[in-house]
Write a structure and sequence with these properties.
This protein is α/β, with parallel strands linked by helices. Helix content is 36%, strand content 17%. The longest helix is centred in the N-terminal third of the chain and has 17 residues.
Length: 225
């Protein structure tokens, strides 16, 4: 497996404008028009949800090739696990887990912000929401490309009562924890994690490179046997 470079950034602590950006987005509803393919993905989700009839649901945003969704579905057979990613090529790669998806695992090509908003507008909530190893956008000028700096961030409060975020960049986790506190009043836990089994391909790659892994959660962290 190829070694992965550690994240390099001139930013050495929480972004100086983090609070200002988060509070601004909290004061203004996210209103970007929903793209047709995201509406179709949401409709497909509603159909699958009705067909399966499972009460519990887990949302796995930025799921990449869907390995994390696959593993969460196997570990939680009583729940519908929904993995979403904006890349069709990642979701259709020739990977073993994609050829053997459990019936309770649904992978959808969709932009997170549109899917999140449609769920919130329809009053749909998940038991837990995970965002595992998103692009950290380490340049300080790209704060608003990080999920906690994005205009859609306030939607996360209504999307699920429990959330877990993982990254190989500690600052990303510390910023997310600070933003989550501003949004919800919940402190949660930001800590180094040492998973016994990798949830994602990125997690496996980073661990193999000797990099520290970090996570934020307002409840127990996912643990796979």
């Amino acid at each position: 497996m190829n070694q992965s470079r550690e994240i390099s950034s001139s930013q050495q602590g929480l972004h100086e404008h983090l609070d200002t950006i988060v509070l601004k987005h909290m004061a203004h509803a996210f209103q970007k028009p929903v793209q047709p393919h995201n509406q179709q993905a949401f409709d497909d989700f509603l159909h699958a949800k009705q067909q399966l009839g499972l009460e519990g649901m887990l949302l796995d945003s930025c799921c990449g090739t869907g390995l994390s969704s696959y593993q969460l579905a196997r570990a939680n057979p009583d729940k519908l696990v929904v993995g979403i990613d904006q890349s069709q090529s990642r979701l259709t790669r020739e990977a073993e887990h994609l050829q053997n998806l459990p019936t309770n695992c649904l992978l959808l090509r969709a932009n997170c912000e549109d899917f999140w908003r449609l769920c919130v507008e329809h009053g749909i909530t998940f038991d837990k929401h995970s965002i595992l190893y998103p692009n950290p956008y380490p340049k300080a000028k790209h704060l608003q490309r990080r999920w906690h700096g994005h205009a859609a961030f306030p939607l996360l409060k209504a999307l699920a009562p429990a959330i877990e975020v993982r990254s190989n960049w500690l600052i990303y986790i510390e910023e997310f924890a600070a933003a989550w506190y501003l949004l919800t009043g919940q402190k949660g836990t930001a800590a180094q994690i040492q998973p016994a089994k990798a949830l994602t391909l990125f997690e496996k790659k980073y661990a193999a490179s000797g990099q520290a892994l970090w996570g934020f959660s307002n409840g127990p962290f996912y643990a796979l046997d």
